[in-house]
Amino acid sequence: MRDIRRIFIHCTAGSQKQTKNDLLREFKAKGWKSPGYHYVVFPDGKVEQLLAEDKISNGVQGYNSTSINVAYVGGIDNKGAAVDNRTDSQKDALSKLVQSLKLKYPNAHILGHRDIWGKTPVKWKKQCPCFDAEKEYAYLDDIKLEKYQDSTDSVPVKAEYVPLLQNSPKEPVSWWDKIKALTPWNKKK
């Protein structure tokens, strides 16, 4: 099992009409043996796994052996300029995916690709993922992997969790409601 220390968030830096096959062709054209991301989130909120988590992707040079790489499709406008153009469905699905990964790898630090060059924009070699991922997902540090109470038993959340890529998650409603309440765009203003 790999020692996951970082969960990197990316954008594909392409059209929001990119498909899974488009991305795989792009990686192959670059000569990569593995995809750049473990997971990709499409504009409709669909999440596709491109690579098993126990395999090393090509997301961030020098960090891949200890990282999970996640991307949303998009990140540029129609003129090719960097922009956070995530749909609401993408934001929601990306948040759920990152939450599931954080539960699986509680000691992993969540970063945007650009954050490897620091917090000063002039030092960034890329704008990716075109938003402050570290800030947006900081609320996940408040989620504790403690026991929850359901009507029958007390079970560790981590042991009960089923990955979001399955269509029938088995996490308790009370646990999910807690996470939804912590999600920044779900909070009432």
How would you concisely characterize the structure shown here?
This protein is an alpha/beta fold and 189 residues long. The chain is built from 5 helices and 7 strands, in the order βαβββαβαββαα. The termini are far apart.
Description:
By secondary structure, this protein is α/β, with parallel strands linked by helices. The protein has a single domain (6-145), classed as Peptidoglycan recognition protein-like (Lysozyme-like), CATH 3.40.80.10. The protein is 24% helix and 15% strand. It is built from 5 helices and 7 strands; from the N terminus they run E-H-E-E-E-H-E-H-E-E-H-H. It has helices at 20-29, 88-104, 133-136, 157-160, 173-182; strands spanning 6-11, 39-41, 47-49, 67-72, 109-112, 147-149, 154-156. The protein has a 5-stranded mixed sheet with strand order 3-2-4-1-5, covered by helices on one side. A two-stranded antiparallel ribbon has the order 6-7. Strand 6 and strand 7 form a beta hairpin. It is globular, with a radius of gyration of 17 Å. The termini are far apart.
